[in-house]
Write a structure and sequence with these properties.
It is a single chain. This protein has a seven-stranded parallel beta sheet with strand order 12-13-11-14-15-10-16, sandwiched between helices. Strands 17-27-26-18-25-24 form a six-stranded parallel beta sheet, sandwiched between helices. The chain folds into six domains: about 100 residues, PriA, 3(prime) DNA-binding domain (GIY-YIG endonuclease); about 60 residues; about 180 residues, P-loop containing nucleotide triphosphate hydrolases (Rossmann fold), CATH 3.40.50; about 180 residues, 3-Layer(aba) Sandwich (Rossmann fold), CATH 3.40.50; about 60 residues, no CATH class; about 90 residues, Alpha-Beta Plaits, CATH 3.30.70.600. β26, α15 and β27 form a beta-alpha-beta unit. It contains 20 helices and 31 strands. It is of the alpha/beta class. α15 packs parallel to α16. The structure holds zinc ion (ZN) (2 copies). One zinc ion binds next to loops. The site of one zinc ion (ZN) has 8 residues, from loops.
């Protein structure tokens, strides 16, 4: 039972404005529930809030404003309120910011949007003009149908005023229907694809997982993890519970939606940045009424107001895009596990290359591990071979080794597809003056401008600033001395075009597609075999199915291994395995060639040996020795501000105030200039906090950092479990 509050009682309301605390309001005449969405005045504004409980503050009753209105929406469940509070505590973010994630839907407070439809009523009117009779005749001919205004305007070639006139004469009647149409039901009893023995066993294991509510579904690329969790979704819908599938990439959604439709006979709800306002409203409302059985979405879908959440699937759970780097710094995978534990929903984390965190949790028995070791339909995993670039002869400005070149030729002759992978957007990462050595940098950031020839601009990948590609050096004024260094995806595509002028080449890089639809089109060209050579960035690594692909060439396998990132090895290992996994999904075997200058590197060796378990064991023992996650806890502190001295000062004060923490065995590194020491004109310094696994890091950080918040124009951000160290 939900608590009901009567007229005149004083409740605390959590609003979505950043004011740091809940406010007290009087309950209006209609009353409200715990979790009711309400409209209240805040200063001059009317804002939306949620009733969070009885007010504990002692205030004179006549000074307290009355809630303007209780919205006609099902109150937020205790489970969701509880979840939002936990996320707020965990990420050290004000509850108001977290609540905003859960109420990001347009016109939540406004009345239902209605659709008007027009139909024939009578033609016994005076002044029957030609336009009027056109309309009436059309409606009369279709007397059992009704039409939208725009349809009639188009069909009859009249202006809207003609129709309005007829409505006022009662010759046409108007029907109002809610604009938010319900979704078609998914039918969980439709028989799915025939599962292999291994898949059937996996489904059985998950069903029998008992009280362990997080499952790590670890299956090699092409093993059919999706089919397995579609069965779990069917189970969930049969129990009349709601299910959620999180995907890392919008580009993947279309493919996935089609599979769901084929399996359950109807489309699920979608939730990501690519859907329009009306659809967003519809999904949010249907979820809150418990009517939507399945939502497929990006990380923010985790904050939707499900009534009876029974299952959360996090597909490609290792993907770093689950970590939000802006606003509330949360990791959707970890928060999904959180929400699952609060709601008794089962959580399935699926991946071919799990994150080390999840792998360790499965090892320790904290998660229930289910493995798929075979590819679907008897396909074999691609073989991986290294090309030692130290013994290849390559002229400058060229990136495809003779060995790889021969292999591509061979595939072209056989009519098979090749994918060349380079994880770098643009044409070239560096533009340098041959005369004075000046490199073109962003004037707002500590980073080089990346040359993009496709759009003919220099782009800063940190702040997004763009400028024209100059023909003169800004520094020494020489003409024609600027040249590019290093490859980007566009430059590689240029090389491929020169080498294979008759081949059909397709480039896949996120910045070449302005809409999800254009990306989808390119993907289906590849699937249908209309492309011979695909040149792609990490966009290709994510779950796409290219049936005609048999060769993957990794242009620079060493690229991700540079830098001091905690997860550099893990990330490179995952990325190359995922890219390699695109090949040989049907009856033809696939092969992957990786170009490297360091074939003895631990990560390269692990890739060649195809021993995933060994890699994770080694990586785990390294992290354990270093006290790094998941064996210890990290938090990043980022200080930024327009004045460098102020940033440094606050950093020093922060460090001096940390005696308490350091005495409790917590290590603090920095403050030091961040690897990107300036972004958008703001100077940046970083600190790294390192603690034992069970240390209550949030409580200490809150006391330590928040006292200094927003002093001297310096912003302090806390990033719990950081993924980004830049
Ligand atoms: Zn910049
Ligand atoms: Zn110069």
């Amino acid at each position: 039972m939900t608590d009901f509050f009567k007229k005149g009682e004083i409740v605390s309301v959590q609003v979505t404005q950043p004011i740091g605390t809940a406010l007290s309001y009087k309950v209006p005449s209609e009353g409200c529930y715990l979790g009711s969405y309400v409209q209240v005045t805040l200063g001059q504004k009317e804002v939306i809030g949620v009733v969070w409980g009885l007010s504990t503050i002692n205030l004179e009753a006549d000074k307290i404003k009355v809630i303007l209105k209780t919205l006609k929406i099902k109150p937020m469940t205790n489970e969701l309120m509880n979840f939002l509070e936990k996320v707020s505590l965990y990420t050290i973010t004000p509850l108001s910011s977290v609540l905003r994630l859960a109420t990001r839907v347009p016109n939540l407070g406004s009345a239902e949007v209605m659709n008007k439809k027009y139909s024939f009523s009578s033609d016994e009117i005076k002044k029957l003009t030609t336009s009027r009779s056109k309309v009436l005749n059309f409606l009369k001919e279709n007397h059992n149908l009704n039409f939208e205004l725009s349809e009639i305007v188009k069909k009859c070639g009249v202006s809207p005023s003609v129709i309005h006139g007829l409505v006022s004469l009662e010759a046409i009647s108007v029907d109002y229907t809610p604009k938010d149409q319900e979704f078609l039901s998914l039918n969980p009893f439709v028989k799915g694809k025939l599962l292999t023995d291994e898949q059937t066993l996996a489904v059985k294991k998950i069903r029998g997982a008992g009280t362990c509510n997080t499952i790590l579904l670890n299956g090699v690329t092409g093993s059919g993890k999706t089919e397995v969790y579609l069965e779990c979704i069917a189970d969930c819908i049969k129990e009349n519970k709601q299910a959620l599938v999180l995907l890392p990439e919008i580009g993947l959604t279309a493919e996935f939606l089609a599979r769901v439709e084929a399996r359950f006979g109807a489309r699920p709800g979608e939730w990501h940045s690519g859907i329009n306002v009306t659809e967003r409203r519809r999904v949010w409302k249907m979820v809150s009424q418990g009517k939507l059985q399945l939502v497929v979405g990006a990380r923010s879908a985790l904050f939707l107001p499900f009534q009876t959440l029974g299952l959360i699937v996090v597909d490609e759970e290792h993907d770093h895009s689950y970590k939000q780097d802006d606003g509330v710094l949360y990791n959707a995978r970890d928060m999904a596990v959180f929400r699952g534990s609060l709601s008794t929903a089962r959580v399935v984390l699926a991946s071919a290359t799990p994150s080390l965190e999840s792998w360790v949790n499965a090892r320790k028995g904290k998660y229930f591990g289910v493995n798929l070791e075979w590819r679907y339909g008897g396909a074999t995993l691609p073989s991986i071979t290294a090309i030692d670039m130290r013994s290849e002869s390559l002229s400058s400005g060229k990136w495809i080794s003779p060995t790889l070149l021969d292999k591509i030729k061979e595939k072209l002759e056989k009519g098979e597809q090749t994918l060349l992978f380079l994880n770098r957007r643009g044409y070239a990462p560096v533009t340098i003056c041959r005369s004075c050595g000046e490199q073109i940098s962003c004037n707002q950031c500590d980073s080089r401008m990346v040359q993009h020839r496709f759009v003919e601009r220099l782009i800063c990948h940190q702040c997004g600033k763009t400028s024209k590609i100059p023909n003169k050096c800004n520094s020494c004024n020489s003409d024609n001395t600027l040249s590019v260094v290093g490859p980007g995806i566009e430059r590689l595509a240029e090389e491929v075009t020169k080498l294979f002028p008759t081949a059909r080449i397709g480039v896949l890089s996120s910045d070449l597609f302005s809409t999800p639809a254009s990306l989808r089109k390119q993907l289906s060209e590849i699937e249908n075999g209309n492309i011979d050579i695909i040149v792609g960035t990490q966009l290709v690594a994510k779950g796409h199915n290219f049936p005609k692909l048999t060769l993957v060439g990794v242009i620079d396998a060493d690229l991700g291994l540079q830098g001091a990132d905690l997860r550099a090895a893990e990330r490179t290992f995952q990325l190359i395995n995922q890219v390699s996994g695109r090949a040989g999904r049907q009856n033809k075997a696939g092969e992957t060639l990786i170009q490297t200058y360091d074939p003895e590197h631990r990560v390269i060796r692990a890739l060649l040996e195809a021993d995933l378990e060994k890699f994770w064991s080694l990586e785990a023992s390294d992290r354990e020795k270093a006290g790094a996650p998941p064996f210890g806890r990290f938090a990043g502190i980022i200080l930024s501000g327009a004045n460098l001295k102020n940033v440094e000062d606050i950093g020093k004060i922060l460090f001096n105030n940390s005696t308490n923490l350091r005495n409790s065995g917590v290590q603090i590194f920095g403050p030091a200039p961040a690897p990107f020491s300036r972004i958008k004109g703001k100077y940046r310094q970083r600190m790294l906090v390192k603690a034992e696994k069970d240390f209550p890091i949030q409580r200490f950080l809150k006391n330590w950092v928040l006292t200094l918040k927003s002093q001297k124009g310096v912003r302090i951000q806390i990033d719990i479990d950081p993924y980004n160290f830049l």
